[in-house]
Design goal:
Blueprint: E1 17-19, H1 36-40, H2 42-45, E2 49-51, H3 62-75
Parallel strand pairs: 1-2
Length: 78
């Protein structure tokens, strides 16, 4: 996990982006969605920027890992 700017995402353009964001303040479907750089990223155009459940906790032990894997599988359609 890391924090970056949209320009740096061009370096990982072939990836699938999984993100956790609040429904009330989702930068990925809000302000970022209007950004031309964001719109031009392959993973965005190919709909590979996928939300995880907003309640997904990313820090912790085995139970956290289990939830993260379950949410990832759902997002990927597995």
């Amino acid at each position: 996990m890391t924090e970056t700017d949209v320009e740096a995402l061009k370096q990982v353009d072939r990836a699938t982006l999984l993100y956790v964001a609040s429904d009330k303040d989702n930068v990925f479907t809000g302000a970022l969605a209007k950004n031309p750089i964001w719109q031009g990223l392959t993973f965005v155009k190919e709909k590979r920027a996928l939300p995880l459940d907003p309640g997904t906790w990313l820090w912790g032990g085995p139970k956290t890992t289990e939830q993260l894997l379950e949410e990832t599988a759902k997002a990927l359609g597995a």
